[in-house]
Amino acid sequence: MNANFEELEKRVRALSLKEKAELARILIEDLDADVDPDAERLWLEEAQRRYDTYRAGQLAAEPGDEVMSRVRDRLK
Q1: How many CB atoms lie within 10 A of CB 5?
Q2: Which residues 6+ apart lie within 8 Å of 1 measured at CB?
Q3: Alpha carbons 34 and 28: distance in angstroms, whole number
Q4: What pTM value is reported for the model?
Q5: How do the pLDDT tens digits run along the chain, 76 residues long?
Q6: CB contact at 8 A, 15 and 23
Q7: Which one of 17, 23, 46, 54 is least enclosed by Cβ atoms within 10 Å?
Q8: Minimal CA–CA distance to 27: which of 37, 12, 47, 49?
Q9: Calpha distance 22→4 (Å, rounded)
Q10: Residue 48 to residue 54: CA distance in whole angstroms
């Protein structure tokens, strides 16, 4: 790391929790600049489709901890 980065890191660590969160939001937005502008709409549509399927009795609910455990196992 260069000295400028180290100084910046030191200054960021001195920020309040609220300021750090705001900075993180700004940086994430900057990193996500190339994301498809329709991505959020598409995810909302998918979430609604899954919810409707669940409400219609065509999809069973699963405990979140079991789902996350399976995901962690797949990522290993």
Answers
A1: 9
A2: 9
A3: 11
A4: 0.47
A5: 799 999 999 999 999 999 999 999 999 988 877 778 788 899 999 999 999 999 999 999 999 999 999 999 999 9
A6: yes
A7: 17
A8: 12
A9: 21
A10: 10
